[in-house]
Amino acid sequence: MSMVIYCGKFYCQTNKDYLKCRQIADNPCVSICCENYSIEGKCRVIGKPYDIPDFINAMEKSYPDAVKRWSCLPEECVLEITPTLVKSWIYDNNVPYVETWDFSNNTYRKEKQ
């Protein structure tokens, strides 16, 4: 999935008829992973790609082919994810740690595993 980040939130586009959109309508809690990061958040549909200029601008910088192929399709919608919890698995001097940013409680911690 092509994802962009701006204004402290994550955005992507998908087909409004896909199962994930129906599931998000029932339960907006989502989780995404990339490399050594796990991001939990609240997700919502915010409109059609070309109705959101900031989204299109961000997507065109990183994924111009995806914009050309998919953004104009009538069933496409934009998902906005507001992060609530981010975890990163890291090594510090060969010791494994998990860093946790809890945006709901405005806290950070680094714990040895």
Classify the beta-strand content into a percent band. Answer: over 45%
Gyration radius, in Å: 16 Å
Spell the H/E element sequence: EEHEEHHEEE
- The structural class is alpha+beta
CATH topological fold name: Pnp Oxidase, Chain A
With helices defined by DSSP (H or I, 4 residues minimum), what is the helix count?
Answer: 3
CATH class: Mainly Beta
Mean pLDDT: 95
Low-confidence stretches: none
Global shape = elongated
Superfamily (CATH H level) name = Electron Transport, Fmn-binding Protein, Chain A
Number of domains: 1
What is the CATH-assigned architecture?
Answer: Roll
Count every beta strand, where a strand is a DSSP E run of 2 or more residues.
7
Distance linking N and C termini: 30 Å
Largest sheet: 7 strands, antiparallel
Provide the descriptors you would attach to this structure in a database record.
113 residues; alpha+beta; Pnp Oxidase, Chain A; 7-stranded antiparallel sheet; 3 helices; 7 strands; elongated
Write the layout of secondary structure elements.
Elements: E1 3-6, E2 9-15, H1 19-26, E3 29-34, E4 37-47, H2 53-62, H3 64-70, E5 76-92, E6 95-102, E7 107-112
Antiparallel strand pairs: 1-2, 2-5, 3-4, 4-5, 5-6, 6-7
Helix pairs in contact: 2-3
In short:
The chain has 113 residues and is α+β, with helices and mostly antiparallel strands. It has helices spanning 19-26, 53-62, 64-70; strands at residues 3-6, 9-15, 29-34, 37-47, 76-92, 95-102, 107-112. It has one domain: Electron Transport, Fmn-binding Protein, Chain A (Pnp Oxidase, Chain A, Roll), CATH 2.30.110.
